[in-house]
Design goal:
alpha/beta; six-stranded parallel β-sheet
């Protein structure tokens, strides 16, 4: 079945033969209570949102603000994490901590995951004492798990009566805090419609890519790979300019008014590198993981990606230089060291 274009989905239209967009779904449902304060207005008339009791596993840099968004939207959250501090923090926000996945699964039948690696997702979903054993009905995976693992998970979970919706997110910590993430979802349409109230508080743009397991995951790793490529390319160009004596702010102004504009030049470098602050947003190790997932899927499909293999090599070099657990903005320091020039300026320095 044909799918609506991204523009059609966002504006609430559908083309002939396409599935209805999220906005159209919202108009059809008559739900029970007003949207909570702080819930983003999607350009629609005031609507009501169904409250749900749901589990949430993984309360890290992304999971914590997403879980808080769900609590703020009125959902009743039971949470699990390996960190006692993370559990205490969410309990103070109104969640109910669970001592184990079994305890969590005994209290809810829908569970949301936000976990760092495919191996951890598999262990939580299908491992001993995991969610499948606990008897949950639906798992919504917000993690970047990759299409191959997700397809395998969907099959194995299905054999145990558990439905998987993959819904990886893009937009970083700031997007998670603001509820403005982009979500790329796939899985059974009926289940997707059921869990839509859980997606609305965390994402301003929710795309449904079809019923094939892993389609959302494939879209996510493609996105992150293109992001990595544009970031590495921007690092190279800006270091060349810095070596030649060009001012960083001026270079960014020109690029962002020209065809060289990208997420790197408009967001990443201005916020993380121009003032030499390098705040933690997303580790080099995790970006490398996402690029490798995309390269692996491309190889499986017989599609060469020579440029992005070089991008992955640069990320690997950044990790080798000690930046694995630091934000990937630090990879620019490799180029700066080779060039003997620095992009941006520290506080107090003259332009």
């Amino acid at each position: 079945m044909g799918q609506p274009t991204g523009r059609a989905r966002q504006e609430g239209h559908r083309s002939p033969g396409s599935l209805p967009c999220l906005a159209c779904q919202r108009r059809r449902f008559k739900l029970k209570r007003p949207a909570p304060a702080g819930h983003a207005d999607r350009g629609l008339s005031p609507r009501r949102i169904t409250e749900m009791k749901v589990g949430f596993v993984g309360l890290g840099r992304m999971g914590n603000p997403m879980a808080r968004r769900l609590i703020g939207a009125g959902h009743d959250l039971v949470v699990s994490d390996t960190s006692a501090d993370a559990l205490q923090d969410l309990a103070a926000a109104g969640a109910t901590p669970a001592a184990s996945l079994a305890e969590l699964g005994a209290k809810v039948d829908i569970v949301v995951l936000s976990l760092p690696t495919p191996a951890i997702v598999e262990a939580v979903a299908l491992g001993s004492g995991g969610l499948a054993e606990a008897g949950v009905r639906i798992i919504v995976d917000l993690s970047t798990t990759g299409p191959t693992v997700t397809q395998s998970l969907a099959t194995r979970l299905g054999e145990k009566g558990v439905t998987l919706i993959d819904a990886p997110v893009s937009g970083g910590i700031s997007g998670a805090e603001a509820g403005s993430l982009t979500l790329m979802t796939s899985g059974p349409r009926k289940t997707y419609d059921e869990i839509t109230p859980l997606l609305e508080p965390i994402g301003s743009k929710v795309f449904y890519l079809g019923e094939t397991p892993g389609a959302g995951q494939l879209m996510k790793v493609i996105n992150n790979t293109l992001c990595a490529a544009s970031v590495i390319a921007a690092f190279e160009g800006l270091v060349v300019g810095a070596k030649a004596g060009l001012d960083t702010d001026t270079m960014l102004d020109v690029l962002n008014a020209s065809s060289g504009q990208s997420f790197a030049t408009s967001v990443k470098i201005p916020q993380c590198i121009a003032d030499r602050s390098f705040p933690m947003r997303f580790t080099t190790e995790l970006l490398d993981k996402d690029v490798r997932l995309c390269l692996g899927e491309a190889e499986r499909l017989g599609v060469p990606m020579p440029v992005n293999r070089l991008v992955q090599q640069m990320l690997a070099m950044g990790m080798g230089a000690g930046h694995a657990q630091q934000d990937y903005a630090n990879v620019i320091k490799l180029y700066e060291g080779w060039a003997g020039a620095e992009v941006g300026r520290r506080n107090g320095e003259e332009t």
